Amino acid sequence: MHVIGNITIYLAFFLSIYAFVVYIFGISKQDQRFIDSGKGATMGIFILASLSMVLMFVLLGTSQFQFEYVAHYTSSDLPLIYKLAALWAGNAGSLLLWTFFLTMYSAMVTFSKKMKRNPMTPYITSILLLNIMFFYLILSFVTQPFAILENTPVEGRGLNPMLQDPGMVFHPVTLYLGYVGLAVPFAFAIASLIVKNMDAFWIQMTRRWTIIAWAFLTLGNVIGGYWAYTELGWGGYWAWDPVENASFMPWLTVTAYLHSVMIQERKNMLKIWNLSLIILSYALTLFGTFLVRSGVLTSVHAFGETNLGAYFLVFMAFMVILSMYLLMSRYQLIKKDTGQFEAYVSKESSFLINNLILLGGTFAVFWGTVFPLVSEAVRGTKVTVGVPFFNTVMSPILLSLLFLMAICPLIAWQRASFKNIKDNFLIPALISVAVAIVIVVMGVQEAYPVLGFTIITFMILTHLVEFIRGTRARRHVTKEAIPVALFRLMIRSRRRYGGYIVHLGIALIAFGIVGANFDVERMETLAVGETLTIGDYTLTYEQLGQRSDGVNESVFARLAIEKHGRDLGYIYPERIFYLNWEEPSTEVAVRSTLREDLYVVLSGWEEDRRATFQVKINPLVKWIWIGSFVLVLGAVFAIWGGRYGQVNPRYTGPERNVY
């Protein structure tokens, strides 16, 4: 098994070199035979990567402790699902997963029907092969997933208890699908620069790829937030941790890109901007991988100190320099026939401002993330940037984005007139102001919550107006029933209305985030029979017990819940002690409603059964998870069954008689 596993790695590495070389020969010699050979090698690499994955799953699932990776991250008592999920618990396994996704995407692009015989295909695949070669270099000579131990241990170390959660099964996989997926539009963009094909072909062909990558990044971040909320016991879902920031930054830049490409398609503008955004997004995925694997910053998500950081830093620098060289050398060609803005008040301008704000947010997060490294290099002391900095900087950015998202659907292209603005925004604005007044009358005095709820209301109303107007216009022509007209309206413009659904999802998420301004928290030590009052809730501590869960032991508390004198049942926070791990894990008890979450943590206990509880009331948190579902639903709706791009677009690069 050791030999077979290493063969799949080494053979795939040399096959990736071979594929890259024959593609270059095929391009330079204009020889289809080399191109076909490279395509076959690309498929061979994917098959080898799949074999590596299957083999590693078998080793993990059957507890083959002679393998270093298996012994380090699993144990015989670990449930099978977590044995398999341990594949991405460490450096070697997670890089194997990353490489598998990269080879999968490469094979899908290479053998896509839309790319069949397209002159750009060998260029695109060559860029992807550069990435594959790098990752196989790491797997072959730096961190080997199939390394064996000199002495086989009787038992494995086991999986970190914090990772024994359903979030471990889904969070890394979705995040990696998003990270790796961004290599595809990057490869298309670089290939377009190489062949000097500056039309919208690469945008048309990668729109769906980019939305898919963005949707997976979204899912990864949301699942990670939910995992942190239910597992770590600190009562929040986003801590501005360096690794959290690393996945959030490319999400921001890809969001900006998805908006600005619409301007290029419609007005032939922002070509350099879009190329720069996709290059930046790709670079940020490599930067995030560097942060996770270098150990330069402390993070609960990181893999610890390793020697991988330098490799990723060098590769990231190489790819960025190559990209910027191509971008600058084609600058005059890109600027040719570029459209111009016609008015400051227009949909184009609102999209551009939206992009600038998103990039401003990206820079703020980037600076807050790397500042400890900068301070250590300059002053010799690592100064940590905390949550207050990020919240202070990002709050106005979030509100500004929401306001622009409210305006964009109804503002006119080219030039918006005063009449257009009045007709479209007067009623939503008046209702939103009324909501603000009601909120203030109810006793909310803080500026950010009032402003936040007002803008969210305005945003939801403007989007509903767009749905209503579109449905009315269709009914006027077709005489269809309202549900039928609405459904067919959305189906005929999937991308547009899918985007609106995404916006509504973001509004719901923002609604939940603003609710954090009203959190209430108490920590108290109680004897059995004593009560704790927080907000409208009264919790009575009734029991401290212990139970066995396989080889693990759990200590739990039972608390009765009352609200306004009404019995709401029981809640059971607990701590789990593991046989193969020193630190216990926290199992948070959460009673969730649309209005608020009652969040209880068992922090500690004494021999006399006195127990210490951390209790929080987190308003509106459930709307974050609901909004995330709506957001992903909108992304799926936008790409499902829609028509994207032409199969054989006009090719304006160097003449070719092959491929």
Rg: 27 Å
Helix content percent band: 55-70%
The tally of helices reads 20
Poorly predicted runs are 644-659
Counting helices, strands and paired strands, the structural category is alpha+beta
Q: What's the N-to-C terminus distance?
A: 39 Å
| General shape | globular
Instruction: Report strand %.
Output: 5-15%
Report on the biggest sheet: 6 strands, antiparallel
Fill in the keyword field for this structure.
alpha+beta, 6-stranded antiparallel sheet, 4-stranded antiparallel sheet, disordered C terminus
Explain the overall architecture.
The protein is of the alpha+beta class and 659 residues long. It is built from 20 helices and 10 strands. The strands form 2 sheets. Strands 2, 3, 4, 5, 6 and 7 form a 6-stranded antiparallel sheet that branches. Strand 9 (596-605) and strand 10 (611-619) form a beta hairpin. Helix 1 (2-29) runs antiparallel to helix 6 (121-141), helix 10 packs antiparallel against helix 14 (347-379) and helix 17 (447-478) runs antiparallel to helix 19 (494-514). The longest helix is centred in the middle third of the chain and has 33 residues, at 347-379. The protein is globular, with a radius of gyration of 27 Å. 45% of the residues are buried.
Write the layout of secondary structure elements.
Blueprint: H1 2-29, H2 32-61, H3 68-73, H4 80-85, H5 91-110, H6 121-141, H7 166-181, H8 183-194, H9 201-231, H10 242-267, H11 271-294, H12 309-329, H13 331-335, H14 347-379, H15 387-407, H16 418-441, H17 447-478, H18 482-492, H19 494-514, E1 520-526, E2 531-534, E3 537-549, E4 552-563, E5 566-571, E6 574-577, E7 585-587, E8 589-592, E9 596-605, E10 611-619, H20 622-639
Antiparallel strand pairs: 1-10, 2-3, 3-4, 4-5, 4-6, 6-7, 8-9, 9-10
